[in-house]
Design a protein that fits this description.
Elements lengths: L3 E2 L14 E9 L2 E9 L1 H18 L7 H7 L9 H16 L9 H6 L12
Parallel strand pairs: 1-3
Antiparallel strand pairs: 2-3
């Protein structure tokens, strides 16, 4: 799992009323998310709530996420929130605009490289 850092995270001045440093580590989308924040505890909690919201809908590392259920639906109709439908539409548009150079579909690569089983080099 690879950490990535958000430095610096700029917060609106109103949220910096009581400045503090917040270091947090959470798991998100199958990786370790390390946050180093300068701002209020309230702003940090709002950011972490947004990470959790996106994780709940978009992580394929969670069987109960919207995207995992969509993948498991095997092409059957499924209700998704308008925000995620719009996102998927934009992703599809970019794939078409780039003649497939941008391809967000990673399932085959994840399986081939064994990324969820500790990793391996795939065979030819």
């Amino acid at each position: 799992m690879l950490p990535f850092r958000l430095l610096p995270l700029l917060l609106p001045a109103a949220q910096l009323a009581s400045p503090t440093s917040v270091d947090r580590e959470v798991m998100a989308m199958g990786t370790r998310l390390v946050l180093y924040l300068e701002g209020s505890q309230q702003a940090a909690e709002k950011l972490l709530a947004e990470v959790a919201r996106i994780e709940t809908a978009g992580s394929t590392w969670r069987n109960d996420s919207d995207f995992s259920r969509l993948n498991a639906a095997g092409g059957r109709a499924m209700i998704l929130d308008a925000e995620w439908l719009q996102l998927l539409g934009r992703v599809q548009a970019w794939s078409q605009k780039t003649a497939g150079t941008f391809d967000p579909v990673l399932g085959s690569l994840i399986r081939a490289w064994g990324l969820r089983e500790g990793g391996r080099v795939p065979s030819d």
